[in-house]
């Protein structure tokens, strides 16, 4: 059986890792992947990706890096994404992974106007989602965790926007029948979201945001997590 890749583009901050684990662990749990099915490739550390034809699917993590830096490892991964799209490989990118997928396919990434978006945010499901095999099951509004400074400002041609927030119009997009990406974090639980807000509180205050209010607004996000799980099941990647 072909493995499912978790393409690691970064690490959670050390204090968060120590208490809550890290991206591969959260992705495995969120997408309901069997431990013996996954293969973690740390592209930020220079590890090479296998050919798309050798894997069953790929999930692309977040990162503290910025897509606009165009680091060599990031640009190599963008090239791999283009090859994977040619193979119609099931792919789901999250946060940095979302931005990198759009960048790889011809979109434009840069800093989100108005500053960072962080906390449990309310998302709006767009009309285009009605015909989507996964997003059609979402209600008109749902909550998800987010923390990002950059965003996809211009989408690649042929991309369908499924979900938006008040701050970011491109929170969930579909690139083809097997490839999606989300700016929000379906793999986060509420404790992880609170840990990120606590870590970013000084930056938030400096930028005019109220971290205490944002912290209090953190809530469970079962529908965002369910979408991640359903993607995995829909493409035969999940354990159950």
Automatic annotation (TrEMBL):
Task: State its Enzyme Commission number(s).
Answer: 6.3.5.2
Q: What residues does the Glutamine amidotransferase domain cover?
A: 54-197
Top-rank taxon: Bacteria
Establish whether keyword Ion transport is in the entry.
no
Pfam families of this UniProt entry?
A: GATase (PF00117)
PROSITE patterns xrefs: GATASE_TYPE_1
Q: Care to name a GO molecular-function term for this sequence?
A: GMP synthase (glutamine-hydrolyzing) activity
InterPro entries in UniProt: ChyE-like (IPR044992), Class_I_gatase-like (IPR029062), GATASE (IPR017926)
Q: Which UniProt keywords apply?
A: Ligase
Report the Gene3D superfamilies cross-referenced here.
3.40.50.880
Class of the enzyme per the UniProt entry, highest EC level: ligase
What is the protein named? GMP synthase (Glutamine-hydrolyzing)
């Amino acid at each position: 059986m072909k493995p499912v890749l978790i393409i690691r583009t970064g690490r959670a901050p050390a204090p968060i890792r120590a208490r809550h684990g890290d991206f591969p662990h959260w992705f495995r749990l969120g997408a309901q992947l069997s431990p013996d099915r996954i293969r973690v490739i740390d592209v930020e550390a220079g590890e090479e990706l296998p050919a798309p034809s050798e894997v069953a699917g790929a999930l692309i993590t977040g990162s503290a890096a910025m897509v606009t830096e165009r680091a060599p490892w990031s640009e190599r991964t963008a090239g791999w994404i283009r090859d994977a799209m040619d193979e119609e490989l099931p792919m789901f990118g999250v946060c940095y992974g979302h931005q990198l997928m759009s960048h790889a396919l011809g979109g434009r990434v840069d800093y989100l106007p108005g500053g960072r978006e962080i906390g449990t945010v309310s998302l709006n499901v767009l009309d285009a989602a009605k015909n989507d095999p996964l997003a059609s099951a979402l209600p008109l509004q749902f909550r998800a965790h987010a923390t990002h400074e950059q965003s996809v400002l211009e989408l690649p041609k042929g991309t369908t926007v499924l979900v938006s927030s008040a701050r970011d119009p491109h929170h969930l997009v579909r690139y083809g029948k097997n490839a999606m990406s989300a700016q929000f974090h379906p793999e986060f639980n509420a404790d992880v979201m609170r840990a990120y807000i606590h870590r970013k509180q000084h930056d938030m205050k400096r930028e005019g945001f109220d971290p205490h209010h944002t912290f209090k607004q953190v809530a469970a996000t079962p529908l965002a997590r369910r979408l991640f799980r359903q993607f995995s099941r829909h493409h035969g990647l999940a354990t159950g």
